[in-house]
Design brief:
The protein is α+β, with helices and mostly antiparallel strands. It contains three helices and 15 strands. The chain is globular and about 60 Å long. The N terminus is likely disordered.
């Protein structure tokens, strides 16, 4: 019995050490990452409501149920389209994300965020509108807000909020809203122009730290209107455009 006890103690100690090594290893684990993934560029297109009560069928080979007529998600904003509202099709839109700086001792790493949507027009009832156009609604002069659900995997985590933030982990999905402004144009054939020129660190200071090897997964990019009051801070906003392509 005495011999068994002497052998059991070292065995238990070894298991404890092994468990501690596993915990330590998992706390400082690395994660896979690419050599680079920048810039990210996406065109934007008008958003339409999901087909919930189909009354048509799409042509083969994509022969799935469809809904007639199409309905824009935003009741507040639109763009020119001759077959829909008689105005010329002058709208284009994009969102671009570009990583800048090199990881080092100075916090110069950031993500530049730029976006432009042209020919943005008010629908009836919107308060923030500029000059009238020759066809369809006037120029929109309120705010828009771009956002997406992002998921970050990096070396910037800790067991508690007190830090130090050195552990590798994947954060829960979070929104990252960025507000842009819209201005009227002198051209009566084109609506307002909405723009964003900022950086991630400007929007959320400290969100792009040095040397943390962040892999950021980006969900669908959406552009929300400012509601009938043109202000994104109020709750009456709707999805105006989403990332996508147009096929003539």
């Amino acid at each position: 019995m005495t011999i068994r006890k002497k052998m059991a103690l070292p065995a238990a100690a070894a298991l404890l050490v092994l468990a501690m090594m596993v915990v330590a290893s998992s706390a400082s684990a690395t994660h896979v990452r690419p050599k680079g993934a920048s810039p990210f560029y996406a065109s934007t297109v008008p958003a339409f409501q999901t087909c919930a009560a189909p009354n048509r069928t799409h042509a083969p080979p994509l022969a799935f149920p469809s809904c007639n007529p199409p309905v824009q998600t935003s009741p507040n904003l639109t763009i020119g389209s001759p077959d829909a509202n008689g105005a010329a099709a002058n709208s284009t839109g994009f969102i671009k994300l570009k990583v800048v700086g090199v990881a080092g001792g100075i916090d110069d790493t950031d993500v530049v965020i730029t976006s432009t949507i042209t020919d943005v027009r008010c629908k009836a009832g919107v308060a923030t509108c500029g000059s009238a156009n020759a066809a369809d609604g006037p120029d929109y002069t309120g705010e828009v807000q771009g956002t997406a659900q992002i998921q970050i995997t990096d070396h910037n985590n800790a067991p508690t909020a007190a830090g130090p933030f050195t552990d590798t982990a994947t954060e829960v999905k979070i929104p990252f809203p960025v507000t842009g402004s819209c201005a009227a144009t002198a051209d009566t054939a084109t609506g307002g122009t909405c723009t964003v020129n900022t950086t991630a660190d400007t929007v959320a200071p400290g969100s792009v730290p040095e040397g943390k090897r962040g892999v950021v997964e980006i969900g669908q990019l959406q552009i929300n209107d400012g509601g009938i009051d043109g202000t994104v801070a109020t709750a009456d906003n709707s999805v105006f455009e989403v990332q996508g392509i147009f096929i003539p």
